[in-house]
């Protein structure tokens, strides 16, 4: 088994929560992490390790200074999340995964277009928000839930900045939408007159 994956002992019996303080905003943060929380912390650390490496690599090869700075900001956001989530595990004497930064080459020649790299950055940000939502839906500790809520707005702003850059460059394809029934009704009335 990989030593960087947190493990907990198998339960010998089923225990039931007897006090409401289990989910208290004050006392809930002092109790050990549940298996479910460990899973979500680990999963979010792993995806941010990949995201950070991706952003660092992209920042080295982007042709535009503005896009390069955007990728650097993405790497910084991922690094902060990795540290915060890892601290929660290490405070419980659980291991945190290792970074992949050493595997990034020193190349400054891009194998991809800025458009493709921006698309992948957008995709990574959307997946991050989806992961936070999944974790948030199962959090019983208020302090961790508040942390995930804060991250959703931070990553949402990062994604929005990226979408604006893609729109500026003419790289963002408009998603399919439902028909504009009011507009169709107006235009059909104009055609008959």
From the helix content, strand content and strand pairing, which structural class follows? mainly alpha
Return the CATH class: Mainly Alpha
User: Oligomerization state of this entry?
Assistant: single chain
Count of runs of 4 or more consecutive helical residues: 5
Would you give an account of this structure?
The structure is a single chain. The protein contains five helices and no strands. It has 193 residues and is mainly alpha-helical. It has one domain: Ferritin, core subunit, four-helix bundle (Ferritin, Up-down Bundle). The protein starts with 34 loop residues before the first helix and ends with a helix. The model has no long low-confidence stretch (mean pLDDT 87).
Give short descriptive properties of this protein.
193 residues; mainly alpha; 5 helices; 0% strand
Strand and helix layout:
Layout: H1 35-61, H2 65-90, H3 114-136, H4 142-169, H5 181-192
Helix pairs in contact: 1-2, 1-3, 2-4, 3-4
Give a quick precis of the structure.
The chain has 193 residues and is mostly helical.
